[in-house]
């Protein structure tokens, strides 16, 4: 099976030895996207709503770079710094980006340092992605 590296300047560059995303077998696997600005790596926002919005924008940029979007997402994994406090605000913002049928989703508490949320997704790639 062939793996294709995905990279866009419209989402934060990886902070380590990993890809923003990989396509394998017509499926896109993203790295966790955080609420950092794509160009400056500055943290965007202080509330869970603001930070979720930025993380989702970063995910949208990665999806778009390979011809996909949130309608193709089949699974999301969400890491919240404080699930008890932030789940409702996260969920209200998240639902602005996804629609029925909603992707499967796992939400876990994680130590994230200075940010509140990190999200990675698995998405199907449209036909046009296969020829890239």
Automatic annotation (TrEMBL):
Record-level Gene Ontology MF annotations: deaminase activity
Which InterPro entries does this UniProt record tie to the protein? RidA, RutC-like_sf, YjgF/YER057c/UK114
The Gene Ontology CC terms held by the record are: cytosol
Coiled-coil segments, which residues? none
Entry similarity comment:
Belongs to the RutC family.
Q: What is this protein called?
A: Putative ribonuclease UK114
């Amino acid at each position: 099976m062939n793996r294709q590296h995905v990279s866009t300047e419209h989402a934060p560059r990886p902070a380590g030895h990993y890809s923003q995303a990989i396509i394998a077998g017509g499926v896109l696997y993203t790295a966790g996207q955080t609420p950092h600005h794509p160009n400056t790596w500055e943290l965007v926002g202080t509330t869970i709503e603001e930070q979720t919005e930025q993380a989702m924008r970063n995910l949208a940029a990665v999806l778009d770079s390979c011809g996909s979007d949130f309608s193709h997402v089949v699974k999301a994994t969400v890491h919240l710094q404080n699930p008890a406090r932030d789940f409702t605000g996260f969920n209200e913002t998240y639902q602005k980006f996804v629609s029925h049928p909603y992707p499967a989703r796992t939400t876990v508490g994680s130590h994230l340092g200075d940010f509140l949320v990190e999200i990675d997704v698995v998405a199907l790639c449209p036909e046009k992605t296969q020829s890239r």
